[in-house]
């Protein structure tokens, strides 16, 4: 690209439109040999693109037509010469640079979907304008063809140079899948040049899809992205091999490099940028709202019917379709092992710091894992079938714990919690958590000896007591996960038992219960956890029973919670003197694990993108009851049911506080005030019977042992509790309630804003969208 004139000098300097036929003029934009995408970004400044857009619109239009035409020609010819390859790459870079400035201007947005005279759908050269293809379609099909172009993006299968070139039109791209894995057994020789070329084309593809960033978040998330819709339709003959190539490239990637420490310092890893780009393109193509999808097979089959030949879901997005129909065990194993290996990468602690390359795209991987579980129930069941699920759980808990103090990573906290909520709706997840936790990943949490359930609860406690304020909306979700797994937890450690009681202590103070309309739900969740464990897992849980006995005053205080106006008023006065919602006192913090670093807040000035609000737990989940035979029965909410039975309300708060609450205030910002009627309405439903009965039976026996033996020693009491039994003494066990995640348009919208926010922030070299007028989210500095 001739630097002397600059971009607007060339394209905008001519106030008069330049004819599209003036090849000498247009060729100067892509004929240059040695440019990189970074060069194009430097040579074509934002101000100049905007100037051409405003002052010489017909030249910008022609530039786009011509650049797309060059890509189409390259795809048609098969890019045999070096010169053709260079032109394709330069046009690709130029379009990547210019497209965001077309998307940011509403007047230009329809431009790529207008038809180009002479570009017939019916093949070459039919000048039938009725049949003309929109520019966007020509561009997307050319990119798809170029991604399977022998000697450019894939290896040629020709035996010798004498063979005629492979015909691009008859080529079966399924034989050219980029990597072994799902549905493809052959792993091609790695080729640096091919990887780089693929990456440039995928960057352009992602930029095409990014029109979504320039539309504000719409409440009805049925708004499909026309670029994605077309690219993932039957119009794209490469849809299957491309989906497979992207998935396999991500899941086969091993950043460690064949187990040789420091290998990444010797060989620059050119695969990683391609893997990142592939992961980003993949999650964007899978942005499909399963809640509004027409077909029930993807979203809700509880029966686990064969999905391999199920009907395609809703809009015919082939990528979603293929993903939902993967069904071979070895394919599931390959995907799960790959994602687990990559998620665990930041945790790999060898004795040699920096000996393994640290990857940065764990958020994209979490979105991909979410999509797999959400669209393919067979995959979800496979994940939970063995303890392999723990290889996903441990990295997620690591990320949650590490990000808890960092305002810029709220999105990461949410997706981690959403995945655990989805998994916790399945009985097998709770069962798997009983596996002893021995991997010692350095984490800033108290040292304990126990199971993966202990790890989960200790990390959740840490998030609740020492995360930042913006995580409060997640407390309901965190405790719902603990409730869902609690009936299956065979033995909690003493550290964990104390953490659970510390949470109850903090959440059941009068000022906390009275300071917001929903706070009492947290107490209901914790009581439900204790009841599940006492009723279903009493035998192995002497630590928890002992902790409940020691902290029995908390339960008595709850039962005797004052409800008269002066007491309510007094409790709220105390609150004004207590700034922190949860003190750490009384939780016996203990020392953190060796080698761990405390969770750090974001560096000042860190960029973050805003997120839409997530639906409340009542919208996120659906209650199901576990029957005798272990099957789940959905519980439809009773109409007009008030919210105080411990389950978050189905949008029907009780009359007593509905009147108290001004429509403007949904927060605890002082406009809402608690009344005695409101307190009584839920206090009377606190499920304390089981615990009170347990205390009634065991406390006198424990006290007698202490007096008889003059004991101050815990171990003797624990031994007594281990051998004790409450059979026949407790109330009849209640049915187990599970709150299963259910897809809804609110979460679909949240995922869309989160995913594009991640992609925006992660693409800094070159900064594809930086400083353009995006509407889907706001860019904020911490």
From TrEMBL:
Coiled coil: none annotated. InterPro entries: Hid-1/Ecm30. Pfam families: Hid1. It comes from the Eukaryota. Residues 291-310, 566-675 are annotated as: Disordered. PANTHER family: PROTEIN HID1 (PTHR21575:SF12). GO terms for cellular component: Golgi medial cisterna; Golgi trans cisterna; membrane. Residues 584-594 have a biased composition (Polar residues). This is HID1 domain containing.
């Amino acid at each position: 690209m001739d630097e002397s004139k600059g971009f607007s000098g060339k394209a905008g300097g001519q106030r008069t439109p330049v004819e599209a036929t003036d090849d000498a003029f247009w060729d100067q934009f892509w004929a240059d040999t040695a440019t990189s995408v970074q060069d194009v970004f430097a040579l074509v400044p934002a101000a100049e693109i905007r100037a051409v857009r405003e002052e010489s619109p017909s030249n910008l239009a022609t530039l786009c037509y011509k650049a797309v035409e060059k890509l189409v020609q390259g795809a048609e010819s098969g890019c045999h010469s070096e010169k053709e390859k260079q032109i394709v790459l330069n046009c690709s870079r130029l379009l990547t640079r210019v497209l965001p400035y077309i998307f940011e201007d509403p007047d230009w947005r329809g431009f790529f979907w207008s038809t180009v005279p002479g570009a017939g759908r019916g093949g070459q050269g039919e000048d039938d304008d009725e049949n003309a293809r929109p520019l966007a379609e020509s561009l997307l099909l050319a990119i798809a063809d170029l991604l399977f172009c022998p000697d450019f993006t894939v290896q040629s299968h020709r035996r010798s140079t004498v063979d005629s070139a492979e015909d691009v039109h008859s080529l079966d791209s399924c034989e050219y899948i980029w990597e072994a894995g799902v549905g493809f057994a052959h792993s091609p020789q790695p080729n640096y040049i091919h990887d780089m070329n693929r990456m440039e084309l995928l960057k352009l593809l992602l930029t095409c899809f990014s029109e979504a960033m320039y539309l504000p978040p719409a409440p009805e998330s049925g708004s499909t992205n026309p670029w994605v819709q077309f690219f993932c339709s039957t119009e794209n003959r490469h849809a299957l091999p491309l989906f497979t190539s992207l998935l396999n490239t991500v899941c086969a990637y091993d950043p460690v490099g064949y187990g040789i420490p420091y290998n990444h310092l010797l060989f620059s890893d050119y695969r990683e940028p391609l893997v990142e780009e592939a992961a980003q393109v993949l999650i964007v193509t899978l942005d499909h709202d399963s809640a509004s999808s027409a077909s029930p097979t993807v979203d809700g089959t509880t029966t686990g019917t064969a999905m391999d030949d199920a009907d395609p879901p809703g809009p015919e997005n082939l990528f979603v379709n293929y993903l939902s129909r993967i069904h071979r065990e070895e394919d599931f194993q390959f995907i799960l092992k790959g994602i687990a290996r990559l998620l665990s990468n930041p945790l790999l602690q060898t004795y040699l710091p920096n000996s393994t390359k640290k990857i940065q795209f764990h958020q994209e991987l979490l979105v991909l894992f979410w999509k797999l579980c959400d669209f393919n129930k067979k995959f979800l069941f496979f994940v939970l079938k063995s303890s392999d699920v723990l290889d996903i759980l441990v990295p997620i808990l690591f990320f949650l714990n590490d990000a808890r103090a960092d305002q810029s990573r709220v999105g990461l906290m949410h997706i981690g919690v959403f995945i655990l909520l989805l998994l916790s709706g399945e009985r097998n997840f709770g069962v798997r958590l009983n596996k002893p936790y021995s991997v010692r990943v350095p984490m800033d949490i108290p040292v304990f000896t126990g199971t993966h359930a202990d790890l989960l609860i200790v990390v959740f406690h840490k998030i609740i007591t020492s995360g930042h304020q913006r995580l409060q909306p997640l407390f309901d979700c965190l405790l719902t996960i603990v409730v869902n797994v609690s009936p299956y937890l065979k033995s909690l450690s003493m550290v964990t038992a104390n953490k659970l009681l510390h949470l109850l202590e903090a959440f059941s103070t009068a000022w906390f219960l009275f300071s917001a309309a929903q706070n009492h739900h947290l107490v209901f969740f914790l009581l439900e956890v204790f009841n599940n464990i006492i009723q279903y897992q009493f035998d192995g849980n002497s630590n928890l029973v002992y902790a409940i006995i020691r902290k029995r005053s908390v339960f008595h205080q709850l039962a005797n919670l004052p409800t008269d106006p002066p007491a309510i008023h007094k409790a709220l006065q105390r609150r004004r003197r207590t700034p922190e919602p949860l003190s750490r006192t009384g939780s016996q913090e203990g020392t953190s694990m060796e080698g761990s670093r405390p969770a750090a807040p974001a560096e000042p000035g860190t960029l973050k993108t805003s997120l839409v609000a997530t639906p409340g737990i009542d919208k996120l989940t659906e209650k199901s009851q576990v029957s005798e035979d272990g099957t789940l029965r959905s519980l439809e909410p009773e109409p007009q049911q008030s919210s105080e039975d411990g389950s978050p309300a189905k949008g029907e708060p009780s009359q007593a506080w509905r009147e108290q609450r001004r429509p403007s205030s949904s927060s605890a910002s002082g406009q809402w005030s608690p009344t005695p009627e409101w307190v009584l309405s839920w206090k009377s439903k606190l499920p304390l019977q089981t615990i009170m009965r347990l205390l009634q039976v065991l406390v006198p026996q424990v006290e007698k042992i202490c007096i008889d033996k003059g004991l101050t020693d815990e171990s003797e009491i624990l031994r007594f509790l281990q051998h004790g039994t409450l059979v026949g003494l407790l109330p009849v066990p209640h049915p187990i309630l599970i709150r299963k995640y259910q897809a809804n348009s609110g979460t679909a919208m949240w995922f869309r804003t989160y995913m594009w926010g991640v992609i925006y922030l992660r693409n800094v070299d070159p900064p594809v969208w930086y400083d353009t007028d995006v509407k889907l989210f706001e860019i904020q500095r911490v």
